[in-house]
Amino acid sequence: MTKIPLRRFTARALPIDGQDRVLLLHGFDPEKPDQPFWFTIGGAAEDGETLQEAAARELFEEVGIRANADEFSGPYGSSVIEFCWAQYAITQDQTFFAIRVGDDAVVSFDHMEQIEKDTTTAYRWWSAEELESTGEVFFPEDLVAIMRKVTAASPVTEGGGSV
C-alpha cells in the first residue's frame, strides 16, 4: 500500500522536572502495535503559530500541563527526519524546546485526539542515565545529548526550580 506523503514543521516539548528528568510518552504506530517506543511530546505548528506556541499547545493537549510560549527555552536541537506512521510517509522538521516543571506536575491524557489516546499507552519521567542504560526504544536517538544541553543551560536549585 502506498503511503500518503506529509510534510510537518513540529515543535517538540521537553518538560524537565526538578530531578532533571524528561517526560516521555510510550506508544505505537497503529500499523505496528507490537513495536512500541518512547517519544517526546509535540506536534505540528498550526497556521500562524510560532514553534514555541505549538510546544505550549501540544504540552497541554498531550499531557495536560499548561504553559505559556515564553516559558520555553531553546531551541536545543533541530533535525529533519523521515518515518512512516499509520498511512503516512512523514518528513518532519523538528525543533526541541524545554520547559521546567514542578515535581508535582500532573499528567493527563484527557485533551488528546482520539488517535493519540488509542496509540499512547503510558508516560514516564526519564533521567539521562536511565535512557543511556535502557534497552527500550526511544526517539529521538540523540535525546540524551539534547537533555544534557537543557540541564546545563538551566540548572536546578535545591528548591526544585530553575535558576
Automatic annotation (TrEMBL):
GO terms for molecular function: hydrolase activity. It comes from the Bacteria. CDD domains: NUDIX_Hydrolase (cd04685). Residues 6-149 form the Nudix hydrolase domain. InterPro entries: Nudix_hydrolase, NUDIX_hydrolase-like_dom_sf, NUDIX_hydrolase_CS, NUDIX_hydrolase_dom. Its cofactor is Mg(2+). It holds the Pfam family NUDIX. Signal peptide: none annotated. Keywords: Hydrolase, Magnesium. PROSITE patterns: NUDIX (PS51462), NUDIX_BOX (PS00893). Belongs to the Nudix hydrolase family. PANTHER family: GDP-MANNOSE MANNOSYL HYDROLASE. This is NUDIX hydrolase.
